[in-house]
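User: two proteins, same treatment. go.

Assistant:
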Amino acid sequence: MQQATQLIEQYYQAFNNGDMDTFLSLLTDDVVHDINQGDREQGKEAFTKFMQRMNHHYREQLENIVVMANADGSRAAAEFVVLGEYLNTDEGLPEAKGQTYRLPAGAFFDIRDGKVARVTNYYNLGDWIEQVDPQ
């Protein structure tokens, strides 16, 4: 359990530091990524491309991170707040104008051989849209 918790804490520390090499090194080669309200992708290459796209469109930092793990360390979850800035318009979403947002979010993980084998992210897309494009 402690190793799983430390792995997820390291994962988010690397994310917050913008250290994509470390961040990606914590994934299995066949990692499964369930994108919030989107598709399921598989493999580190697909995850890397996803992160490149995300880093182009958004600048984000996570705070108030709470990590939980099951007894055998095979699964974990995290809850946190995303502090972000919308940098470049993402296809199908409102126009980016440097808007900032604060969004509660969570993630669920499968862990295998000391690495993240699955990550499922969740946040309320409607809340995000309301923050960046209030009508």
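Protein 2:
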Amino acid sequence: MTFYERYMDGETTSVYNEIEKLDFDTLSVDDKIDIDKVLTETFERVHFNSQIIYNQLIEIGYLFKTEFEFNFERPLHKPLVNTESLIKELDSAVSPFGYVPLSLKYFYRIVGGVNFVWDYETNSKFMWNMADPIQVASIDSIVEEVINEDWIENIQPYVDDEEFGCAFLDLSADDLHKDNASGGQPYSLEITKKQTIDGRFLNEVNETSFINYLRICFDYCGFPGITYDENNDYQSFFDKVKPLMKKI
């Protein structure tokens, strides 16, 4: 069976455990077509799940930001019309350090952007405290950051550090910043030395890959930091939404 056939047959995690270890540069044309189908299906499911969660949150009165200056503030937005040109800009900007993992490119081509952070500027009383809602910054904001003339200078110390050893793209605020509290480093995606299918998702508690971070987010219906207690109604939300999720 192909990777795609296995993925469609429910082997979503094991397929990625295997393809993430492959040397992308040595893959045959047929293998690359197969992996393209897997990635496309994965991010169509990410889009589907994000829309389901968003709709259900609207139903229960979850407070999203409603006035936007930037795309990254929007709860959801479709892929931008200039996504491909922005991906080329991104590739060029990070080329001194390596490559943007394919997973992020497919996210921007198929999903666009997601930001389920509570609008604490309107109401500081969160529905669910420290729930770490899913957030992936829009590609235009990422490109704006990396084409800044100071970006290479600021990222170089991380690349030179023996323990850290890589450049990265900041994709999400950490759990504390999402709750309007002082926090740590943003959640970031590793820029890899070679072209890869996925990359490490840095500074996040699970110490995993980007795709597996999204998988964990959907396992918790968009709120991977949630804690269960008798004082919130998350359980009823979870019980209604979780059966609607597609495995990624």
